[in-house]
Amino acid sequence: MNPTDKEQFLSLVRENQGIIYKICNSYCLNKDDREDLAQEIIYQLWKSAAGFNPGYKFSTWMYRVALNVAISHYRKQQKRQNISIPEKERKDIPEFPEEADKEENLKQLELFINELKELDRALMLLYLESKSYSEIAEIVGISETNVATKLSRIKEKLRLRFQNLQHNGTTYR
Amino acid sequence: MEQPIDNLLKDYKNQKQDTWIMNVMNLNMQLLEERQTKKAKSRLNKLAVKKVFMIILGIAWALFLAALAFFGSFVNLFFGISMAAIAVINIIVVALYIQHVVLILRINYSNSIVETQQKLSKLQLSTLTMTRIVFLQSPFWTTFFWQPDMAFFSDWRFFLIGLPIALLLTFTSVWMFRNVNIGNKDKKWFGWLFRGAAWSPIVEAQEFMQELADFKNE
Questions:
Q1: What are the backbone dihedrals phi and psi of residue B99, each rounded to the nearest 5 degrees, phi first?
Q2: Which of A17, A99, B59, B95 is the most exposed, having the fewest neighbouring CB atoms within 10 Å of its CB?
Q3: Whole-structure pTM over 0.95, yes or no?
Q4: Residue B62 confidence (pLDDT) above 90
């Protein structure tokens, strides 16, 4: 595996395009921004490829670079204003879980994840990719225990938000 | 039994991708490089160029002040001491600029998220640190013309104007140096001093630094 070779690099990136896709979706609201961020991520990956340590998994390294670029891009673009759910989208969201439509719940979950702070969102993305705690710790730069504690808090936060939806019916908050 | 949120997270993970990612993936590498190189010439690189320019200017200014201090001290001790103090503060600022250029060059997106984001925020915060240090030189700009003779110090203008201004600036600069920090970001005076578009990214960077530290240590 030699990511400094253009063809090999592109093929590795294509194999792992899901990483870029999920990160861009999570840190950008509109399609144009997402494409811009995806291009920026690929470019930074290419620039950093020379420093790729073959001892690492390509995907771990890719997550580090992509999340760093996405968080910096997000902070620049959004100036740390919390993304709020438009009122229109907040209405008509079915109750969770039994009678809820799965697609709607997934949309709602995506909105809740996108409302998390940048670093918590990164943790959640890695968790959703079934990364081990040790790999998450390595990518983010915190201890494994810290990863476990934070993930459990985030999941609890998400669960409570759905519970609020259920209790308040279609009116959010 | 699994909780519903876990099931939902599993479904979320297995969602299909939209087509927009294919547009990006279909770009050829050369086109992508050309587009991004144009962009990259701005941002960090621009920042590094600006800082290198400031370093050259700062060194020239500090050398000029040092020469003034050296030759001026033969004529007037106050002038010599004041210029020397200003030169030392400027040398500290230049040293900080050099440190920042090194920091810019060492930013590596392959490092962990916490480490990289801390370095980037530290860079943004450098403007605030510079302001604190640069302001320390202000009292010396009010003392360089003092004369080492009794007539000057017994003059009413020294007691009513010169000395109070020097004391006021000394107090203010030391106070600012000690108090301009994240702990005071919610104080009224802080908001008043550092309001506006130019300062908001710096205040935000301070908050993010704090967030990163909490995130790491919790």
A1: -60, -40
A2: A99
A3: no
A4: yes
pLDDT digits (tens, 9 = 90+) for A114-172: 888 889 999 998 998 888 999 999 999 999 999 999 999 999 988 888 888 777 765 43
Chain B, nearest residue to A33 by Cα: B20
Mapping DSSP onto H, E and C, the string for B23-72 reads: HHHCCCHHHHHHHHHHHHCCHHHHHHHHHHHHHHHHHHHHHHHHHHHHHH
Of B15, B36, B111, the CB nearest to A106: B15
Residue among B12, B17, B216 minimizing CB distance to A142: B216
pLDDT band at A35 (very low <50, low <70, confident <90, very high): confident
**Tokens representing B61?**
């200014």
Residue B69: predicted pLDDT: 92
Residues of B in contact with A129 (CB under 8 A): 13
Read off the pLDDT of residues B166-202 as tens digits, 9 standing for 90 and up.
999 999 999 999 988 767 878 888 888 877 766 777 7
Residue of A nearest to B43 (CA): A76
User: Hey, are the CB atoms on B116 and A18 less than 8 Å from each other?
Assistant: no
Give the closest residue to B96 by CA, choosing from B52, B124, B130. B130
- With contact defined as beta carbons under 8 Å apart, do B69 and B83 qualify? yes
Q: Is B110 on the interface with A (CB under 8 A)?
A: yes
Where do runs of H (alpha helix) occur along A28-143?
31-48, 58-78, 87-90, 102-115, 118-128, 133-140
Q: Can you list the alpha helix ranges (DSSP code H) found in chain B?
A: 4-13, 20-25, 29-40, 43-75, 77-106, 113-135, 150-153, 156-157, 163-179, 188-193, 200-217
Which of A5, A64, A127, A139 to probe by mutation at the B interface, max B CB count within 10 Å? A64
Percent of chain B with pLDDT over 90: 27
As a whole number of angstroms, the distance between CA B140 and CA A166 comes to: 66
A27, exposed or middle or buried, with CB in 10 Å at 0-12, 13-18, 19+? buried
Q: CB B109 to CB A64 under 8 A?
A: yes
